[in-house]
Amino acid sequence: MTPALGPDAFAFSIYDPSLLLSPYGQSLWKAPFSPHDVLHCVQYEAHYLLAWRRMRRKVIQNYADVLCHMAIGWRMGDDLETLAELPDGTIEINILTGRAAHSKAGDLALRIAGEMQAWLKQRLSADRIPEDAIVRAEITLGTRTDRIRTDKKRVVSFDWQCHSLLATDEKTYESKLAEAHTWHSRVQHAQAPKG
Predict the structure, then answer these.
(1) How far apart are CA 184 and CA 190, in angstroms?
(2) Taking the CB of residue 29, how many other CB atoms lie within 10 A of it?
(3) Engineering a disulfide at 89: which of 27, 75, 85, 104 sits with its beta carbon 3.0 to 4.6 angstroms away?
């Protein structure tokens, strides 16, 4: 974030040379800057730093919110057939490594895990936040398919409970989202040509 150019963009006050002389022609200049200038500089830098930190906190919180929406939104569509084969449980996604694991089935190869990893890296770069500023980035996704009775060989209804967590060395950012009844038709996948 670059401060706007103008009088406030300079840490030290800019003097009009005509103001450095008294009405009697005596020089009023005593030092390159005064204690007031130092205080002004410190106040400016503190304001700039705090504003940047507040902005960064809002941005990272937005990451946590968006990741939950990604986890239970349309981007999960490519992985629904894989999940339909699994028992109800909890999926843990490490976004920093792009790896996922199911509480009962173990390690999973989920496309959404890699997409989240790539998305987070892209956003950090675009927002000029170093990747190593994020020390943890995780999604915990609870799945249930038994709330609505269906023929699971033909169609599955997923209920989701998502919790995202991103952490820096200063603060932890979290978001939660629930979604009921994401329908997945398995007939289309069974009939799709292979090759």
Answers:
(1) 12
(2) 10
(3) 104
Q: Which of 126, 120, 119, 122 is nearest to 173 (CA)?
A: 120
Residue 39, domain member (yes or no): no
| Contact call for residues 182 and 160 (beta carbons, < 8 A) | yes
Q: What is the DSSP string of 54-79?
A: HHHHHHHHHHHHHHHHHHHSGGGGGG
What is d(CA 140, CA 138) in angstroms, rounded to the nearest whole number?
A: 7
Using a 10 angstrom Cβ sphere, with 0-12 exposed, 13-18 middle and 19 or more buried, the burial of residue 160 is buried
Nearest to 120 by CA among 172, 141, 112, 175: 112
pTM metric for this prediction: 0.66
| pLDDT tens-digit map of 29-61 | 455 555 555 555 555 455 444 555 667 788 999
**78-105 pLDDT tens trace:** 888 888 888 899 999 999 999 999 999 9
CB 107 within 8 Å of CB 98: no
Residue ranges of E strands in the chain: 89-94, 99-102, 106-108, 136-144, 155-167, 172-185
The reply to whether 116 falls in a domain is yes
